[in-house]
Amino acid sequence: MEIKTIGIVGAGQMGNGIAHVMALADYNVMLNDVSEDALSGAMDTMARNMDRQVSRGKISEAARDTGLSRITTTVALKDLGQSDLIIEAATERETVKQAIFEDLLPHLKPNTILTSNTSSISITRLASRTDRPEKFMGFHFMNPVPVMQLVELIRGIATDEETFVACKSVVDRLNKTAASAEDFPGFIVNRILMPMINEAVYTLYEGVGSVQSIDSSMRLGANHPMGPLELADFIGLDTCLAIMNVLHDGLADTKYRPCPLLTKYVEAGWLGRKTDRGFYDYRGEMPVPTR
Ligand code: NAD
């Protein structure tokens, strides 16, 4: 099945990044959000990000103009009815996602593929509540979408091969790399990355090292581009904690228990860069470790 039109639900951080890369790959994009402000904000962000790509010589001015013209925004979910592929990238709450698919289904063509960009909700469970679990899968982009190379493709228990192949061909057209993952908590990237970040927080909690010594150890000793605590601040400590809870609950293994110090930072509202304070304090000129 040829995919020409892609419907994206949710125009936040991820939704606008997904719309951006799809439009530059010559797909027609219908971008939906419940909020008009989110939609106009997404169009501004995409225009700004594409301008930056033009100034760095990554895309031409003509590609930017054609790309932006391929994106239509709408607050009416039913306008996504003619899409060949739906990518749901709305708020990470199961009831929200479930309601979106429920509202969308009556307007879709019978062979439209449904996907979700969820980081942690079971693909199999989301799929089971639709009329087409065999045409449902996880399409997990990394943040920021225009920059990050990887897309995890997650098959639910019922996903058929045709659906997988169609989604893989979209990833190929984006010039990104697909990694196939089974539908278990955290998929691949978060299953490996989050326990490492959590272990870094335990290392801090137990006094093995300071924020700075832990981050420089992993930067210089393991050649990571960012230290784990710096990275946790970038992702958001609330997001890190939520994913650890998903791993802990979903895999029922104590090795995934979230570090109490991570919980304490979240309780304090010190969520990392987005609140100007986490393992580092970002309020001054230079980030200063908070422990
Ligand atoms: P966000 O909060 O930036 O954006 C979510 C958007 O969804 C908002 O604009 C909101 O108005 C909209 N929305 C809420 N309910 C809706 C509805 N019923 N219909 C249409 N739109 C609705 O969130 P985000 O960071 O873009 O995350 C979106 C999804 O992507 C989540 O499932 C998240 O787990 C996943 N994800 C996030 C990241 C990340 O680093 N932020 C990475 C990979 C995957």
Quick summary:
This protein is α/β, with parallel strands linked by helices.
Describe the protein:
- With 291 residues, this protein is of the alpha/beta class.
- 45% of the residues lie in helices and 15% in strands.
- The strands form two sheets. Strands 3-2-1-4-5-6-7-8 form an eight-stranded mixed sheet, sandwiched between helices. Strands 9-10 form a two-stranded antiparallel ribbon.
- Strand 7, helix 6 and strand 8 form a beta-alpha-beta unit.
- Nicotinamide-adenine-dinucleotide binds next to helix 1, helix 4 and strand 6.
Provide the low-confidence segments as ranges: none
Number of strands: 10
State the end-to-end distance.
Answer: 54 Å
**Total helical segments:** 11
Oligomer: single chain
- Relative helix content: 40-55%
Q: How would the global form be characterised?
A: globular
Mean pLDDT: 97
Helix-strand blueprint:
Layout (H helix, E strand, L loop, with lengths): L4 E5 L3 H12 L3 E5 L3 H20 L5 H9 L1 E4 L10 E4 L5 H11 L8 E4 L6 H6 L7 E6 L8 E6 L5 H13 L3 E6 L6 H17 L5 H11 L6 H8 L1 H15 L8 H9 L11 E2 L6 E2 L2
Parallel strand pairs: 1-2, 1-4, 2-3, 4-5, 5-6, 7-8
Antiparallel strand pairs: 6-7, 9-10
The chain binds nicotinamide-adenine-dinucleotide (NAD).
What labels would you give this structure?
single chain; 291 residues; alpha/beta; two-stranded antiparallel ribbon; 45% helix; binds nicotinamide-adenine-dinucleotide
